[in-house]
Write a structure and sequence with these properties.
It is a single chain. Helix content is about 10%, strand content about 35%. It is mostly beta strands and about 200 residues long. A hairpin with a 4-residue loop joins strand 4 and strand 5. It is elongated.
Amino acid sequence: MKPHLIGALAVLAAAGLATCACSGSSPAAQPTKTITVTPSPSGPQFSPPPSPTTSATTAAAGCSSRYLYASTGLSQGTAGSIEQVIVFKNLDNVPCTMYGYPGVALAAGHPVTDIGQPSTEDPSTPRTLITLAPHGFANVTVQITDAQNYPASTCNPRKSTWLAVIPPNQTVPLYVPYSSTACSSMSVKLLTVTTVQAGNGG
């Protein structure tokens, strides 16, 4: 073969190799594609759950004897006893709560001293948490049995001038002027009391 033909073939072979290298594919040479997926309007829609919120309320504190005023309300005579309403007033500028039964006793003297047995609970009224607004009211009803229903030897009667009232869950009594006859004998129970109710009992 002639030398000039050999040289031409070599040049063509080199050009062909270069062409093959340029037209070859590689991952780096592939164009990148971005695919956007739009959810169908008819499909289920999901939204993040709402953030939890705290709506807990704190109950008002119990009514303290220090900020309560007690007085007599309506009274009604029944066979052999008197039903006497006792009204509590919240003297504080913030609400307070009362729950359950107070303690009540007939009392007299200076210092004031209880006479005989204190009250027993009347289960006819359910326990209810009562909130007294500032200067608001609550009440209980005390049934006071007539001491004359008992023989003097059993009752040991004694004049009383006060109702000593201990508000529910308190230890300090409130003294309400009230004239009656008590039984100093511890074997006689004259008083029963309801749970605290809302309002002034009127």
